[in-house]
Design brief:
Elements lengths: L1 E12 L4 E13 L4 E5 L6 H8 L7 E6 L2 E2 L5 H11 E4 L11 H13 L4 H13 L15 H13 L5 E5 L7 H16 L3 E6 L2 H4 L4 E6 L2 E5 L2
Helix pairs in contact: 3-5
Length: about 230
């Protein structure tokens, strides 16, 4: 399970080094096979929460646990191992390895998680490529992809690992309505397969499949919507 306990995140902004309180005491539990969505306006702290859970940003106060591991206080190398074991992360802004095709980018992500290519890789690759309508993109290089195609590739790269938890930061960005529907359905099916999902989004429709929906404002969870 993921346990977020009174997490505060601060950072300095601008030449004046003004202190910004990005997260102000967030507490939340996400059990295996939970589907939790957090909605809220831009700047409310949603993306910061995802990066804090993943151990990608320093926590000023409080702790984040992934099962028995305190990822918020672990060394960087240990944090990377915990991320690799537990999380498929859909970032809001993702970069691909430009010298490699879409399929090679997905292959590298799979090997990073599992150590090698095995019989499950081809099955998982075909499943995700069909669900996201990207079969014809697998041999394409990232420089030739549109913004929406890059976003679908980022989603596939996160999910191909088949990790226990999915952290999704605005996964519908740059996607047309049909692709958003595909992503919505895919996340629902991944949840039905037993995945825990933490989704942060401004899209209420995308969040509608979640079992619990929270609103976030000014770095705090302000309300339980569902």
């Amino acid at each position: 399970m993921i346990r977020i306990l009174d997490v505060h995140v601060d950072y300095e902004q601008g030449s004046s080094r003004e202190l910004v309180h990005a997260l102000r005491g967030v507490t939340l539990d996400l059990n295996a096979n939970d589907y939790v969505a957090i909605i809220g306006p831009s700047g409310s702290g949603k993306s910061t929460l995802v990066t804090a859970v993943a151990g990608l940003i320093a926590v000023a106060k409080g702790d984040v646990y992934i099962d028995k591991y305190k990822i918020s206080r672990a060394r960087r190398a240990r944090q990377a191992k915990i991320r690799g074991k537990y999380f498929g992360i859909i970032f809001q802004f993702s970069e691909m390895l430009g010298r490699f095709t879409v399929e090679e980018n997905l292959r590298f992500a799979y090997v990073a998680a599992h150590g090698r290519i095995d019989e499950r890789y081809a099955e998982r690759l075909q499943y995700l490529a069909q669900k996201l309508d990207m079969l014809t993109l697998l041999s394409t290089y990232p420089a030739r992809l549109s913004g929406g195609q890059l976003q679908k590739t980022a989603i596939a790269r996160a999910l191909i690992k088949d990790s226990p938890f999915i952290l999704a930061d605005e996964p519908s960005g740059d996607l047309d309505p049909e692709s958003v529907s595909r992503v919505k359905k895919l996340l629902r099916e991944e949840h039905e397969r037993g995945k825990g999902i933490l989704l942060v989004t401004h899209d209420n429709k995308l969040a509608s499949d979640a079992k619990s929906v929270f609103e976030m404002r000014n770095g705090q969870i302000s309300a339980l919507i569902k």
